[in-house]
Write a structure and sequence with these properties.
- The structure holds 2 protein chains of 2 kinds.
- By secondary structure, chain A is α+β, with helices and mostly antiparallel strands.
- Chain A is 14% helix and 31% strand.
- Chain A is globular, with a radius of gyration of 12 Å.
- Chain B is α+β, with helices and mostly antiparallel strands.
- Chain B has 3 domains: 198 residues, Aldehyde ferredoxin oxidoreductase, N-terminal domain (Aldehyde Ferredoxin Oxidoreductase,  A, domain 1); 168 residues, Aldehyde Ferredoxin Oxidoreductase Protein, subunit A, domain 2, CATH 1.10.569.10; 195 residues, Orthogonal Bundle (Aldehyde Ferredoxin Oxidoreductase Protein, subunit A, domain 3).
- In chain B, 38% of the residues lie in helices and 12% in strands.
- Classes of the chains: A alpha+beta, B alpha+beta.
- The interface between A and B is large, with 27 and 45 residues.
């Protein structure tokens, strides 16, 4: 299974506005595809942690997601 | 008004109580646009170098822009500027809300105030007429009470009141101004300047209307902004938690200032997150003039032990961090109360939090003793101490009298050993963004004319994803390659320079950072269309960005004549030391590379590398001949 955590206000993009969703794992697939399956293009995301490691979306958007991976999505950061 | 501007500047001499109106032609507005452009024009012309910022000779300017009052989301801000009592340099702070548009509809594009009243007064500007009114009865009152009394005596329920509280009356050097109690011109001590003039408030009410060159086009852009606000990722989530939603991301990325910037992660960050705040004490959200984003979160607490009045809004990201993680305080309600107190007393929440953090570290290291604190023990994580110190600072009581001077002056008093952890630049306390994860931000803190400021240029974390909206929106500037956060060198310096001009333009036009690219939802090309539609000028992005650059150079010229040079473009020593925890543990700024990049930046800007100040050729290039020729 793959866990996606929508941190802070990213829940606005989650199905049913849930903070965490779990997807079944079939075979390794690119991060781009996994996020696309829940309606995300990547443009909505400030930054991504994969198993607590920072992902550079410019370089690693097609990294293969494995069974038991944890994907954490964070919003754009603003001052104020 | 018969156009998009009044072409009228209101000038007030509080010493003589003389009120005059200066008329300006359209070319003045095309050259300076508004906000800090207009403010700096008057500050350079009317303040003598070396003027004491708290003397009658200082000049306080409140300025709108050519776009203010346009019914387009995020185009609602105004600038307050003067020589800063905190830094001795150019001081400026912007705020949203409703005051700016109302002031313009009341008949004036800017207000220029000098002198000092012999007793407390306030200024009422109603439908083109300005009047100086007595304010003895409201001097000493908090902002909320002041607003209520003024509205009642003018019998104008929805008059917009820009006011100071006791903190500014007592000349706390980082005192601010508030409009509608929750919108602060927070930085650089502009409230103290107003207090020094015995000016309690400025009240505006206007029924005029703006005539746009292309009304339908303006309406089309307004509809675009309204639609984008609901769907664009750059604004959609702001409607949910406002800037407070940034806390978890800042913590996870290791850049949440903690323990007076020693650390970048706070173990109790969830307790002070935007989500926790809105779930536990949230009471909806508010917005600014015509803005559909509505990013201002409102909180309320009503318990026998503590009450927080929702009229004062709620803490935003900077406030949650400065009274939370920075002070190792996980007590959310105390942060909400600290925010309310600062808004009541008109204190900048960033400077107040950083000053308290500095005092605690001084106490822990023995530079402040219990004799000097009158027995008060200063410890991190003590929520009641924070609230007590805010009261003492606002009223300059006991230790509060020292803390009211700000970090730089306290450090100078307590000894050079304290400079290492004095988190200020040019005297202004650092905002809640650690530069050790963002090289561009290090340039920004250093070069900013107002001291440490996080809105000088882009934070590269925003534009590191080549598929992200912010990066795509800056391609029109010729920035085609995303850069890593910790890259140094020419590419990073160039990106910073181009985007500094963009940020300066946004500020000069008095637009919110969430309004225009790269952080905002309006692409730069559409901003040009908006200026064209409002003004009728056949302008271009080139012309507008030149104005952004022009105002950067005007601020630098103002500072140069006050004796500032590149020596003050420095950073707190702590930023060149290792971060002590979190994702960026062991990371530090590379001092040698940073200084090399600063050299390159001055060269790119057309500034003298040895002084860091504009060369005459650059000022001529920007049409600022008068600064060179009048020796300003």
């Amino acid at each position: 299974m793959i866990t996606i955590k929508f941190a802070s206000d990213m829940y606005v993009y989650a199905p049913d506005k849930k903070a965490t969703i779990v997807l079944p794992f079939d075979h390794p697939q690119p991060l781009r595809f996994i996020l696309g399956s829940v309606g995300l293009t990547g443009a909505e995301i400030g930054f991504v942690l994969l198993n607590n490691q920072m992902i550079n979306l410019s370089k690693d958007f097609d990294i293969l997601i494995q069974d038991n991976d944890l994907i954490e999505l964070y919003p754009f950061i603003g001052g104020g | 008004m018969d156009g998009f501007i009044n072409k009228r500047i209101l000038k007030i001499d509080l010493t003589t109580r003389k009120i005059t109106i200066e008329e300006k032609d359209e070319s003045f507005y095309r050259k300076y646009l508004g906000g800090k452009g207009i403010a700096l024009y008057y500050l350079l012309k009317e303040i003598e170098p070396g003027t004491d910022p708290l003397s009658p000779q200082n000049v306080l300017v409140v300025a709108t822009s050519v776009l203010t009052g346009t019914p387009v989301g995020t185009v609602c801000r105004y600038t307050v500027a003067a020589k800063s009592p905190l830094t001795g340099a150019y001081g400026e702070s912007e705020a949203g809300g409703f005051f700016g548009p109302e002031m313009k509809l009341a008949g004036f594009d800017a207000i220029v105030i000098k002198g000092k009243s012999d007793k407390p007064v306030y200024l009422a500007i109603i439908n083109g007429k300005a009047e100086i009114r007595e304010a003895n009865h409201i001097w000493g009152k908090v902002t909320g009470e002041t607003q209520d009394i003024i509205r009642q005596e003018l019998e104008i329920k929805n008059a917009r009141v820009l006011t100071i509280g006791p903190g500014a009356e007592n000349l706390v050097r980082y005192a601010c101004l508030l409009n509608d109690l929750g919108h602060a011109n927070g930085r650089t001590g502009m409230g103290a300047v107003m207090g020094s003039k015995n000016l309690k408030a400025i009240v505006v009410k206007g029924n005029d209307q703006i005539a746009f060159a292309q009304k339908e086009k303006v309406q089309e852009i307004a509809r675009f902004m309204a639609a984008e606000a609901k769907t664009n990722p750059l604004s959609k989530s702001l409607n949910e938690l406002g800037t407070a939603g940034s806390i978890p991301g800042k913590n996870k990325s290791g850049m949440l200032p903690t323990n007076n910037f020693r650390e970048g992660a706070f173990q109790d960050f969830e307790k002070i997150s935007g989500l926790t705040m809105m779930n536990e004490i949230g009471k909806g959200n508010k917005g600014c003039w015509a803005c559909p984003i509505r990013c201002k979160m409102v909180v309320e607490v009503d318990t026998p032990k503590i009450q927080v009045d929702s009229r004062y809004g709620g803490p935003e990201y900077e406030t949650l961090a400065s009274f939370g993680s920075l002070l190792m305080n996980g007590d959310l309600i105390s942060i909400a109360k600290a925010n309310e107190l600062c808004n009541k007393y008109s204190l900048d929440t960033i400077s107040t939090g950083v000053t308290i953090a500095f005092a605690i570290e001084c106490y822990q290291k023995g530079f402040l003793t219990s004799a000097e604190t009158n027995g008060l023990e200063l410890n991190y994580g003590d929520a009641s101490l924070i609230l007590k110190l805010i009261e003492m600072i606002a009223h300059r009581q006991g230790l509060g009298n020292l803390l009211a001077e700000g970090v730089k002056r306290i450090s100078e008093k307590l000894g050079p050993e304290t400079k290492e952890f004095a988190m200020e630049v040019k005297g202004q306390e650092a905002p809640m963004h650690d530069v050790r994860g963002r090289v561009s931000l290090a340039y920004a803190y250093a070069i900013s004319p107002i001291g440490a400021d996080h809105l000088v240029s882009v934070h590269e974390t925003l534009v590191e994803n080549k598929d992200g909206i912010p990066f795509k929106n800056i391609a029109c500037l010729g920035i085609l390659e995303p850069l890593e956060n910790m890259d140094y060198g020419p590419k990073k310096v160039r990106q910073f320079y181009y985007l500094m001009n963009v940020f300066s333009l946004i500020n000069t036009l008095c637009i919110c950072n969430f309004g225009v690219a790269p952080r905002g939802i309006m692409p730069l090309e559409k901003l040009v269309e908006l200026v064209q539609a409002v003004t009728g000028w056949q302008t271009s992005l080139w012309e507008l960005l030149k104005t952004g650059e022009r105002t950067v150079n005007m601020a630098r010229a103002f500072n140069a004549r006050e004796g500032f040079n590149r020596e003050q473009d420095n950073l707190p020593a702590r930023f060149f030391q290792n971060m002590e925890n979190g994702r960026l543990e062991w990371l530090r700024l590379d001092e040698e590379k940073f200084r090399q990049d600063m050299d390159l930046l001055y060269e790119m800007l057309g500034w003298d590398v040895s002084t860091g100040n504009p060369r005459p050729a650059k000022l001529y290039e920007l049409g600022l001949d008068w600064i060179v020729e009048e020796g300003l």
